[in-house]
Records
---
Amino acid sequence: MGELLGLRCLTCGRDYDAWSVDYFCPHCGPVAGALTVEYEYRVLARRLGPASFADTRRNSLWRYDSLLPVSGEYAVPLRAGGTPIYDCPILAKELGLGRLWVKDESQHPTASCKDRGTAVAVAAARMLEREAVCCASTGNAATSLAGFAAAAGFPCFIFVPKNAPRAKIAQLLAFGATVFAVDGTYDQASSLALRAAEKFGWYNRSDGLNPMVVEGNKTAALEVWEELHGEVPDFALVAVGDGSVIGGICKGFLELGKVGLSGKVPKVYGVQAQGAAAVAHAFARFQDGRPILPAEERAETLADSIRVGKPMDALRAVRAVAETGGGYVTVSDEEIVAGAQELARRVGVFAEPSGAAPFAGLLRLLREGTVPEGARVVLFITGSGLKDPEGALRGLPEPTVIPPQLEAVDEVLGER
Ligand SMILES: *Cc1c(COP(=O)(O)O)cnc(C)c1O
Ligand SMILES: [Zn+2]
């Protein structure tokens, strides 16, 4: 377990002893009072070397437990972390990039990046001897929590918008969670979960609320650093809804510097849908010296995992990205769909629309010249296409129906 120092409020800077509060700074309240986990970085710098993580021989995020708030002894058996990274030299060349890597976060037990944050939050719940867990989610955080709660033997209470993709609902029900399909938006489900958790004493894994989730999320960056043998990329791109995933990824890259393991931090870019771009707008306000925290905005996109109008982790997502020298980019739904198809065809990674958004974002940043020729780029692909088959089928032709005869195959091939 890490040299845990405590929790710090992102707004007022007050420090709290580790485990003395669960979610947010009592002075600043939810969202504004988001907390970040602090460690004794100088002690860790003396203790950690480039081979420290490999020495654990663990092929999961518990490999990094010297930089985590909870010991791996509280982990459930489901694996989180240890996802593959793919080198894409041909595509890189075509795009004029020096290198292109795809970090396939869909390769998790519940098929999204959310399993990282969940693994750490559920381990914390076990350590704290909580009896039940809950979360609000656009879908993936919920299915992730339901899976890990099943492995932990926790009752699990889920709040999702009732229009979440059917495959995600199927996962929730299969894992035995109690599912509240809220007749409203994700943002409404979010505040309902907050109130219910308080009333019934459930441990709340919701993004932007639980600082443990960010600690799990950051391990994706630690893996990239290790998998590339310390050769940190120039740019890292990831889709953004609430902002917890990107906040974690930035924290991971930045902490590698704080403990002296890496001298370089990639510019991290958040990718949002044009119709649901509250964090990108907050980033623009921040650059103009105006307050970050947004009012609720409209949220319309087919990319359901990033359909967020009132981001719960905007402060972190804006400041952390600024600290890496990165920024935000928005893309249309058409670009997201095209990006998902190209990613599937060219790399063999089948992503849900939100998961593929970074590919669309990369094409835009290349056109704008923000990502220069020869740059080395990693894309975090956050969720599987199997999560939303309807979304994946958009814009794809129907298969050709034929009688069970070889001539029919001949005929179809002849027509092409
Ligand atoms: C949750 C999620 C995101 C975005 O993460 P936030 O923490 O909400 O910003 C992106 N893609 C997928 C597939 C997700 O499930
Ligand atoms: Zn505070």
Note: Residues 112-114, 140, 207, 239-246, 305-306, 352, 354-355, 382-383 surround pyridoxal-5'-phosphate (ligand 1) (CB under 6 Å).
---
Amino acid sequence: MAAAAGALLGLGRLWRLLLFLSQFCVLSGGETTEIPPYVTKCPSNGLCSRLPADCIDCATNFSCVYGKPATFDCAVKPSVTCVDRELRAQESFVINMTCRFCWQLPETDYECTSSTSCMAVSCPRQRYAANCTVRDHIHCLGNRTFPKMLYCNWTGGYKWSTALAL
Ligand SMILES: *[C@@H]1O[C@H](CO)[C@@H](O)[C@H](O)[C@H]1NC(C)=O
Ligand SMILES: *[C@@H]1O[C@H](CO)[C@@H](O)[C@H](O)[C@H]1NC(C)=O
Ligand SMILES: *[C@@H]1O[C@H](CO)[C@@H](O)[C@H](O)[C@H]1NC(C)=O
Ligand SMILES: *[C@@H]1O[C@H](CO)[C@@H](O)[C@H](O)[C@H]1NC(C)=O
Ligand SMILES: *[C@@H]1O[C@H](CO)[C@@H](O)[C@H](O)[C@H]1NC(C)=O
């Protein structure tokens, strides 16, 4: 049992290493003919404005005011196809988005890693450094993965605040 689990864990690591290396190849412009890793996340021929953020490249809107709606000129990444409301294929298009950084989004718009090392009840409540990643369909400015200090999970982790709100 333990050996099998170990082997699975090893496979998982290998897979992540391969994913990492494949991304590296694309970034470094290697002559790979592989399908870019984001393509599996990008539905074909759907509405451009609904594409996950990983599928598009958008130009910065420098007149973007925090908390206000702004329009961004975006283009699909290579191997991604999408259409406008009249079902015409588009390569560049405009998206509407609230002007804010990813780390400023409401908690429901991202998912954070949990900690396995801080289940202990302690006072003051212990915190840990989580990495939070924005959900695919949410658009925001800056790094889509960001660190955040979260309370340890002895009452349901960071859902503590949610529990209070309910
Ligand atoms: C930035 O957003 C504003 C507000 O939507 C818009 O009027 C303006 O044209 C946009 N600028 C660019 C360069 O996209
Ligand atoms: C963006 O917002 C403007 C004004 O609110 C609207 O006319 C336009 O259709 C919207 N575009 C998209 C792609 O949602
Ligand atoms: C909190 O703990 C429960 C049970 O141990 C676990 O299922 C859940 O994923 C944890 N949540 C966070 C945010 O760490
Ligand atoms: C978050 O990411 C950093 C660097 O990528 C890593 O060192 C750290 O262990 C991660 N933390 C968690 C809780 O996954
Ligand atoms: C985005 O955040 C991740 C994890 O925190 C970090 O490894 C990466 O270098 C950051 N990327 C940029 C462009 O800042």
Note: The first strand starts at residue 46 and ends at 47.
